[in-house]
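Schema walkthrough. Field components (list of strings):
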Amino acid sequence: MQVVVPFAATSPKTRLEGVLSSEERSTIARAMLADVLGALEATDRECEPTVVSTAPLSLSSALAFDSDSDSDSGSPAADIDDVTVEVDDRPLTDAVNARLESVGDGSDAVAVVMADLALATPAALERLFEPDADVVVAPGRGGGTNALVVRHPEFRVDYHGASYLDHREIAAGIGATLEPVDSHRLATDIDEPADLVEVLVHRSGGSTRACLCEFGFELETSDGRVTVARD
Amino acid sequence: MQVVVPFAATSPKTRLEGVLSSEERSTIARAMLADVLGALEATDRECEPTVVSTAPLSLSSALAFDSDSDSDSGSPAADIDDVTVEVDDRPLTDAVNARLESVGDGSDAVAVVMADLALATPAALERLFEPDADVVVAPGRGGGTNALVVRHPEFRVDYHGASYLDHREIAAGIGATLEPVDSHRLATDIDEPADLVEVLVHRSGGSTRACLCEFGFELETSDGRVTVARD
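Field assembly_structure (string):
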């Protein structure tokens, strides 16, 4: 399956600026991309990932993190040779829609998986790929769309606002069947400091966790609520 | 299956105090309970729910909300006659552990489902009930434990802190198999204003949504991020 992985290469993850420097945000964004590509590669099906980056990107440095994975949340290091990088500086919606044009035009299906799904596992991605619907959507927390599979040639995305609801409407409008995927792992995009808790709780390996540990983050539960603290 | 539904009857949902009055918080807590009980009743298996309430509770008033459900996110109104209420003012961990004693002592399994899982659907709960593991856990966002099924007589809960990780350790310590359930619906307990977005996005019917609409809440997407606004 063709899989588009949009990646914001410049000034990524601004909502983490309270806890991470600009350089660290750039590093962790690449670590998350490495984990997503690793999880895609470890699924049972033949994935052909294309990273659609807003700026030139060296995959060899992005994927340099050691991925000490286990069976529970494993994403083995991705093989760079299987990954294509395309630079496209258009807004996300336009860049994705350009790739959806290939559906029906040679491709049976195109998947779009966000690069910040640091909790994604092969099993969670299989649940995205499996349903035989025209459109399969993994909603993100907050009404977004974190991952989808498009098998209908007329379906186009619109990532602005509550895109999950918009994508339901767009599918209904063209008579396309839509199936949601109920996954906490795919619903969790790493945008804010509270999201880092999810990485430390739900990943026992992977580049993103390794990166957070290297930066000195650990879980903090002293006041009864779970947060991250940095030494 | 025996299902324990712990319910904080007095001063519930204090983290919603910025957007809801004390009386409204009490009303919405009961609406969420009604949705959870309705979803349990609509699963394929014979559920015997016991609401373990910190104070006396009138189920007939708690379940009075009109549940205008649909097939996608439906939780038909629960039948009060099938639900038992027990008052237990001990801390959550103690109240739940007292009920887990029945595992191996007559019961094959006891499930514990939090009363604030307003997104729970019959399908999501089936995924909790289905795995044949000694302990099945649906983690909550932030490291908590939102729902579990216990089939091992020695397993006991500890809800303090990052309880999902603690429950994994407790299971490992007694040689019990543990299977996590990857569900956004079960991971989403309604604690904070941002969680109300999830109700309005993912429920098209149900008591909790009806309650929020009655209070004048709607989705607000004008600044690109999705929040709730109150008229």
